[in-house]
Predict the structure.
Amino acid sequence: MILAHGLGGRSDLPVPLWLALNAGAAAVLVSFLALTALWTRPRLRGAEGGRAVRLPVPRVALKVVGVLLLAGFLAVAWGGPSDVEHNPAPAWFYAWFWVGLVPVSLLFGPVWRLANPLRTLAAGLGRLVPRRELPAVGHWPAVVSLFAFLWLELASGFSDSVRVVAVFVTVYAVVHVVAGAVFGPGWFDRGDGFELYSVLVAALSPLGRRADGALVLRNPLDGLMTLQARSGLTPFVLLVLGSTVFDGLTRLPVWTSAQGTSVQELFGTSAAVGTVGLVVAVAATALAYAGAIRLTRPYLRRSVAAYDAFAHTLVPIMVGYTVAHYFSFAVFEGQRGWTALSGASVDYTLLSAGLIAAVQVGGIVLGHVLAVTSAHDRSLRDLRPGYERVGQYPMLALMVGCTAVGIALVSGV
């Protein structure tokens, strides 16, 4: 199974690495300068923005399709061949579902919330079990559940095992169906990592709900403003960002050479090395963000919760990094979803190295530009008068640095 999401080498970049780094950083800086000159008052309207539209939403059909797809997936994962070459279940799970959540959510909004088969099954089971009040846990259960998936995919060493994937999805489904039945549908907003991930990505969709419940066409940045910074939301986004950093690190020669050396001897197994690397990458990402917030805090109004104030601005970066690290993986590994059944081979000529590099670098840069725009608008609301510009410097420095690091990681240097 191909889990290499990076380019695999500097020579794959269509331009020299130094030029890509400088161009990416310059794009973020120029966008900031333009914003400070032309965007002098808050413009984003959040849940109040958008133009009402009439679109049919087949809720029942989505629920039925979701349950049928889950049943079909589990039947193939448990009953099909045990090798990945002849069983499409891993490709369906990683490429079709996990990566597919991004384009679907960007285009159609949080449709996974409607189609989520675990919600549907929990609603049925909920009629048979006593209901309890959902504790004030914020989004931390979603952080735990998504970390379990990311560990399986990136660090476990068993990501290409058909039966391990079957076990994971089965256990994940049982846990969340039972929790959803006991605590009600609100559990999935707080505890289902895949659903929360879809909702965050869908905040950038041009389709959304206004405060009065109407379906609207909106500025995607207005959608970001609607995100509620509950406890655990910022760590959730930082977890996704940190996992892509770790994924990029595993494509570097220094990581490859560390496997099988004294580093692996120190921790015992490659899974242990991967687990430590994943945790360290997430922790480093979180510390970088916390440091920028600490430097920003003196310029914020006293009523502003500094750590969560800019959580929504991280979402475009999260999406950009996801595109950068999974684009080629989705195209190539996604083909296994049908080649495993038909016996055909994967066509690796569909994408050139130059096109992959352009999409990866473009995704990172565009994500940071959108993040800078959203952060600028929020800064105009939350920074103390007279500090609207200087107060943005710490977050700007973080985003410029992240742009450079992101481009360097996908280059595979």
Q: What stands out?
A: Residues 10-411 form one domain.
